[in-house]
Design goal:
Blueprint lengths: L14 E7 L15 E8 L18 H16 L9 H12 L8 H4 L6 E4 L2 E4 L3 H11 L10 H20 L7 H16 L5 H53 L16
Antiparallel strand pairs: 1-2, 3-4
Helix pairs in contact: 1-7, 2-7, 5-6, 6-7
């Protein structure tokens, strides 16, 4: 790390090294951000010398260079990445909403529109294109319709709604996934559970999806914080060097009494 010594012999385009933190661990592994100083990267600092090559006579200081570095760091700390980020408080608030009962207000075609005919699926009539998705659920989790509380005429449209949600989930990329989508899928699962469909496994799956979704967003936020720390460390290095230059300049300047004009003392 640079000390508080003179930089007078450094060229105009000299560079000050900014400390860089070690990359964060994987969020899925409950890792925490590691901001240990590890390497260096170079950022332009400009000339901030206050002494000539002899080290005796104070000459000039490009204070605007230091001001520029400080301003750049402040700007960096206030700038958000284009990648979506989230705070821990927002994550906690989301999961509180997730556990709340919220009826689904949307028809099946809001999620995915099936164009095919209705076909038999057990005792129910559902869209033909929804059957493969429903069969995959049954193959893994068993007959989730066994405890349905109402008649087939009501259950068929609800299973078609479930098929539309599954189709929407299958065709949604994690890159475009939103909180509102997760919550709307959750509402459908809650409604179907309320009428007797055994879909607790679907709610649990959506919780896992939400955790993965937010772990990615938190990783983005951690990267921004790490970059801010690196920027502020760089600024600290520049300011420490500038402080050293000021101290050297003060030491080289004799103390004088109060004067009214530059000519005072010339004839004394």
């Amino acid at each position: 790390m640079l000390g508080a010594h003179s930089l007078s012999k450094a060229p105009i385009d000299s560079q000050v090294h900014a400390l860089e933190g070690v990359p964060t661990q994987d969020v899925d592994g409950d890792g925490m951000a590691d901001t240990e100083v590890h390497g260096v990267e170079s950022v332009p600092a400009g000339a901030i010398s206050l002494a000539d090559e002899s080290g005796e006579t104070p000459v000039y200081a490009k204070k605007e260079s230091v001001v520029h570095v400080v301003s750049a760091a402040a700007s960096s700390s206030q700038t958000r990445s284009a990648v979506e980020v989230v705070t821990p408080g927002e994550v906690a608030a989301f999961f509180e909403r997730f556990e709340e009962r919220a009826p689904n207000p949307y028809p099946d075609w809001h999620f995915w529109r099936f164009e095919g005919p209705l076909v038999a699926y057990g005792s129910f009539w559902v869209y033909q294109d929804a059957v493969p998705l429903l069969q995959r659920l049954s193959a893994k989790f068993g007959d989730f319709t066994a405890h349905f509380k109402f008649g087939a005429g009501f259950g068929g449209p609800m299973l078609s709604l479930l098929g539309s949600v599954l189709a929407d989930m299958e065709r949604t990329s994690f890159k475009t996934l939103t909180e509102s989508q997760i919550l709307s899928w959750r509402s459908v699962a809650q409604d179907l559970i309320a009428v007797g469909f055994d879909l607790g496994f679907l709610l649990e799956h959506l919780r896992k999806v939400a955790r993965k979704f937010f772990s990615k967003a938190l990783a983005n936020e951690m990267k921004i914080v790490r970059d801010q720390i690196s920027s502020l460390q760089s600024t600290l290095v520049v300011l420490a060097s500038y402080q050293g230059e000021l101290m050297s300049a003060v030491a080289a300047s004799p103390e004088v009494g109060e004067v009214a004009s530059p000519i005072d003392g010339l004839f004394d």
